[in-house]
Write a structure and sequence with these properties.
About 25% of the residues lie in helices and about 30% in strands. With about 160 residues, the protein is an alpha+beta fold. The longest helix is centred in the N-terminal third of the chain and has 17 residues, at about 15-35.
């Protein structure tokens, strides 16, 4: 089983086959957890993502991903954080999150936000551990009826 010490991160394009496979798996898992409910907010696209990172194990297999998109001046949103089930519990999501926070800081972003939900206790635990705090709906989520079950978090990326 992979551990965080063996994870290699690399930027990738949104349409990269590994990214598409991981993002599709993430969305399928969320639809199953939320009884088929549609994704709230505006789905990410190649045009609006600042960076996509792919986590690979020692064999080069894609085992996780995460992305950032700008949503306001100095503010970014975490998108498509996902680790395949067989690689969970090994700190991989923490490695991806830290790398995305480093990237946000290098862009001069002072705040990161995200949307999650009550049926994602693992995600909530990760973000709470990392210092994210509950906040109000933001951006496209404010007027989205599908965001009713959503939880929103934000934090300033830590200083280097």
């Amino acid at each position: 089983m992979p551990t965080a010490s063996f994870v290699r991160l690399a930027p990738a394009e949104w349409d990269d086959p590994d990214v598409r496979r991981l993002a599709d798996a993430q969305q399928a898992e969320l639809r199953a957890r939320y009884d088929g409910a549609a994704e709230p907010g505006t789905p990410p696209s190649a045009a609006d993502l600042a960076i996509v990172l792919v986590a690979r194990n020692e064999d080069g297999a894609a085992i996780g991903c995460g992305a950032l998109r700008a949503i306001a001046d100095g503010v970014g949103e975490l998108k498509r954080m996902y680790v395949v089930p067989s690689a969970r519990g090994r700190g991989i999501a923490k490695v991806v999150l830290a790398a995305l926070e480093d990237d946000a800081r290098s862009r001069g972003w002072t705040t990161l936000r995200l949307e999650s939900g009550p049926r994602q206790p693992e995600a909530i635990a990760l973000y709470t551990w990392a210092g994210y705090r509950p906040t109000e709906a933001f951006g496209a989520y404010v007027a989205d009826a599908n965001a009713g079950d959503s939880l929103f978090f934000e934090r300033a990326p830590p200083a280097p």
